[in-house]
Amino acid sequence: MLRLRSILFNTAFYLNLILRMIVLTPIYFLVPRKLAYEIPKAWARSNHWLMEKIVGTTFEIEGLENIPESGCIFAPKHQSFWDTYALLPNLKDPVYILKRELTWIPLFGWYVAKQRMIPVNRSARGKVMLKVMERAKQEMAQGRELIIYPEGTRRAPGAEPEYRYGIARLYRDLQVPVVPVAMHPGLFWPRRSTMRYPGHFKVRILPAIQPGLDPDVFFKQLIDVTEKASDELLLDAARDNPSLPLPPTAVKRLAELQGTTAH
C-alpha cells in the first residue's frame, strides 16, 4: 500500500507541475514579477495538499515570527526535494542561489530567470563569485530573503553535518540577519528514493543570528543552534512516528542521543 501511495503521489506531483506550467505559463510571463511569484507559491501549497491526502504526511511550522521583516539570509537544512519549495508560501519574496545548470532546463530556466534567481558555477572563483555577491547585494537591497543551504547538498537525516564556510562569507559581506531552519523532511521524502512515507513532522525556524559577529564565531553558532534543534526534532519525529522506517544515519544518531540522555 505504501508503494502504491508513493506511485500515486509521484504521478500526481509531476502532473500537477506540468499542467500548471502549461496552463499558467502565459499568465506567469505577462504579469509583474512579484505577482507572478504567487503561481509557484500556489503550486507549493497544492503539493502539501496532495501529500497529505495521498500519502498521509503533514507538517507544522514553528517560529514564523522569527523571520525578519527586512532582507535576511534563510539557512535551512537540506535533506529532500521537499525543502526546496515547501516554505515558499511563508516567505515574501525569496531568491535562491542555485546551480547554473538548472537555468538551462527548458521552461523551468525561464521561470527562475523571471524571479531573478542567482545562478552560480560551483567551480567558479574570483571575479565570477564577486559578481554573484554583487547580485546578492542587489536583491537583498529589495528586502528579499536569500535562501542558501549551508551544507550545499542534500544530507540524510541524522548524518554528520558538513557545513560549508561560504555562508560565513555571505554573512560577513551582506551584513544581514541569518535565520537557521531545522527540519527532517528526508524521513518522509527520502533523497534518491521514490518512496513517500506518512506521518507528521515539524519545521523549526530559529531566532535570527544578527549581523556583526566575527565570521568564525557566526559559523560555529549557526552549526550549534541548527544541529541542537535538528537533534530535538529527530527525537520528536521518531517518538511521534513509531512505524516510520528510519535510515541508518538516523538510527545511529538516535542511539547516540538516547545514550547521552540516559546518562
Question: Summary?
Answer:
The protein has 263 residues and is α/β, with parallel strands linked by helices.
- Compute the separation of the termini in Å: 40 Å
Number of helices: 9
Mean pLDDT across every amino acid position: 92
The whole-angstrom Rg is: 19 Å
Total strands: 7
List unreliable stretches of 5+ residues.
none
Structural class: alpha/beta
Give the neighbour order of strands across the main sheet: 1-7-6-2-5-3-4
Order of helices and strands: HHHEEHEHEHEHEEHH
Q: Strand portion, in percent?
A: 5-15%
Mind summarizing the main beta sheet?
Answer: 7 strands, mixed
Can you give the helix content as a percent range? 40-55%
Shape: globular
List the helices and strands and how they pair.
Blueprint: H1 2-30, H2 33-36, H3 38-55, E1 57-62, E2 72-76, H4 82-85, E3 94-99, H5 108-114, E4 118-120, H6 127-140, E5 145-147, H7 166-174, E6 178-183, E7 199-205, H8 215-240, H9 248-262
Helix pairs in contact: 1-3, 7-8, 8-9
Give your account of this protein's structure.
The chain is built from nine helices and seven strands, in the order H-H-H-E-E-H-E-H-E-H-E-H-E-E-H-H. By secondary structure, the protein is α/β, with parallel strands linked by helices. The chain starts with a helix and ends with a helix. Helix 5 (108-114) links the parallel strand 3 (94-99) and strand 4 (118-120). It is globular and about 50 Å long.
